[in-house]
Amino acid sequence: MKILCSRQQLVEAVSNVQRAVSTKSSVPALEGILLRASGSDLTLCGYDLELGMTTFLEATVEEPGSVVLSARLFGDIVRRLPGDTVHLAVDEKNITTIKSGASEFSIVGIPADEYPDLPSIGSEKSVTVSQSLLKGMIRQTIFAVAESDAKPIHTGTLFEIGEGKLRLVSVDGYRLALREEAVPCEEEMNFVVPGKTLSEASKLLSEEDGETLELRVGRRHIQLRIGSYCVTSRLLEGEFLDYRAAIPKSSTTEIVVSTREFISSVERVSLLITDRLKSPLRCRFEGNEIHLSCSTAIGRASDSFSAAILGDAVEMGFNNRYLLDALRNSEGDEVRLQLNGPLSPMKVLPREGEDYLFLVLPVRLKTD
To answer: Is the separation of the CB atoms in 71 and 33 below 8 Å?
Structure first.
């Protein structure tokens, strides 16, 4: 294999593909990036048996071929090369020579036939969505994905597609995040995508209007085609929470509040809460004011600000981090809060409509 390509394009491709590479594997090839040159393209692939990422870039291919190179070493080398172009040559023993400017490296590669094949997805169901739309939907729901794998299905986000709508739902036992948007797809699909896959795919998604991506869904895998990148991932299997049953149907108190003001107040009162000194945030919704307070071994803090409150006065306790996550991922200057007593989850909604919905479970407060 002999090729010539742009260093800048190679650095970008390696940096992205590297995120799908195994950091530690019993199969040495999985700690590498597969490079395959043919026609006028260089294809790069990273795969950790759960998440795979491939991309291609234009190259002058003098001799086609393929090799697997250590992702960490190859990434470090190309990022530090001095020239604008890179010349790669691989001999029959997989010794790879990398030249750029006055620099030259010679590293040992692994035969490409030791690299496992990525799962193939037949021409099954597919849907095309806006990249900026999906990026926003992932951002607003990924924070509620479970971090522990006590229930592995909840370490992913549920995608529900049907009747021209796409809905993303994440739950972790303490909170729920739901976002819904209209998409041009009448086909019905339900599947759960691992949080790690969505996190990596989100970094590739553009915020420019007009850019789209294709989601291709197989029985056990999903493929996201984003520009020159193709992200392949296994789907999670199991019984996802019946989230509709978890959402309170009614409310006895409704509040409209400035998102920024609520966040600032929670951040101030939370200064006394640390990983070692945990304490619930006490929230009292009364009159036209929200009172926040907390007390830990190092002291007490309280704060209040005005809000439009309709209905019963109520006092509730919250985990400060979960409350902040919901508020920070809200869109708009104001949010609508719906409460149904001190032990029912708090609903966080946009001021108008129901494009997103966050549920934050309360913490039982000790009586003073």
So the answer is: yes
Longest dimension (CA), the chain: 79
Length of the chain: 368
Strand partners, 253: 311, 339
Rounded Cα gap, residues 338 and 29, in angstroms: 53
Residue labelled with tokens 């809060």:
337
At residue 17, the 3 state secondary structure works out as helix
Here the tokens at position 189 are 């699909």
Tokens of 134: 């999906």
Q: Which of 51, 50, 88 is nearest to 66 (CA)?
A: 88
- For 237, other C-beta atoms within 10 Å of its C-beta total 11
Q: Are 70 and 78 in contact (CB under 8 A)?
A: no
pTM to 2 decimal places: 0.91
Per-residue pLDDT tens over the stretch 226-242:
999 999 999 999 999 99
d(CA 93, CA 158): 46
